[in-house]
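Run log, item B.
One chain of 492 residues. Sequence copied directly from the ordering sheet:
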Amino acid sequence: QYLNCQQLSDVAKSTSEQLTSIALNEAIRPMIIESLNTLTAIGTDISACLSSVSRVNKQNALLRANDSLESLSQKIIETVFFPEQVILTQITARWRHLFTAAGGEMVRSEALKPVVNPYTAGNPVKHSNFIGREDIMRRLEELWQSSGQAPSIVLYGHRRMGKTSILHNLQFHLGSDTTVVGFNLQLVGNIQNTGELLCMLAISLYDSLPLDQQDQLQEPNTEEFAAHNPYQRLRRFLGKLHTVCGSQRFVIAIDEFELLEELVKENVIESALIRFFRGLIQNYPWLIMIFAGLHTLKEMQQDYWSPFFSSVSSIPVSFLSAKASERLIIEPAPDFNIEFEPEVPKNIYKLTNGQPYLIQLIGRALVTYYNRQVFEEGRARERRFNLQDLSTIVESSDFYQEGNAYFSGVWRQAETSLPKRQPHILTALCHKALSLQEVVEETEIRETEVILILEVLLRHDVIKRVDDRYGYAVELMRRWVEENMALLNKLN
């Protein structure tokens, strides 16, 4: 039966049938039984190969089967006697031919279609594509592993550092007894008052529940929140929620939390809401809040943030390490199959300093460039990126246009943040790194003000200090400023 296999599916089908219940130990020598059992295990790997959707999983299963077959072939020669040795040797030879043909077909079929681009530039990264933030996830797990009161968190960091991706991946790290409720303030719409905001928060909690638990609660209603004290209304809802959910813990993930301050300044919501949030996290042990934004709470300008200082822990989200950056570059997805020359990841790290958005942007541009060369222009090339590919990408005007959201966002933040005149110092630093005294001379700004500005830029990862000289933290950002300096100076 094994010898008659004509294709890979025959191997999977024939080995799926278990050996019959005859007294094999008496009828067949032990090494024959062991060989048959090994062939059955090989068939299981072939079944996995045929049923897998992922190319990598298919290849791995086929490789396991082939390795096992090679080991069995050698063992048959050494330990199995005539006449079974002849039949088993014929089986392994036939199967080896089938495996080799299948492997070649995988390679040919993969080469005939464009590479699926695994790099994500701009949108949150999820699941297996979420790489390089294991340290922050471990830190959150440590802070929240106890069953008692767990601290709420502020995640702060520079633009496009991956804060939103961290929020989106929390659920996969916290276990089934914790429910993460996303609450992005950019998506709350045109709210009119504090009551509407609190009602939307209650609805987000309600929507996170399974249907059977939703049936035990009444869906929050905007009119009811407007007609009654909205703070009291939310507390009543939380009380009912806890009754229904028992030991379940909720993490409310509030993204772009600085928008709260803007809503307060515009008199849309009350400043008392911030103090109310502090009361929630202190009095409901099963409720945790995690805020993600650009600033630490100490940088927020209004006094109503002060009560939060003693109630939350702050975790910075900064650049990826060199090791994490390399992993993101060369393995952005489990089934990515283009290689990099060794110097390419190192140079990408030098250009980005581990800025995850820019790494994703470069990777995305490289894959697009490869697909265009091979499938649009019909060029023959290695399935490998080299330094010339990287140079072509980062010197292209298209690259900076695609990355404009990042580069201009950093610049606008410098323009609108306190202290003022940050852009003047960024312009002065775009040609080379400068000492404190050289910055003062270049900008003609008082030294005390320069020191304050440099501290803010350092804290927000816009610049770095090396040997008492200040320069851009991200080389690509420096190049963008240098390229657009005339226009930026005109705007300032």
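Observations after the first pass:
- The first strand starts at residue 152 and ends at 156.
- The chain has a mean pLDDT of 86.
Flagged for discussion on Thursday.
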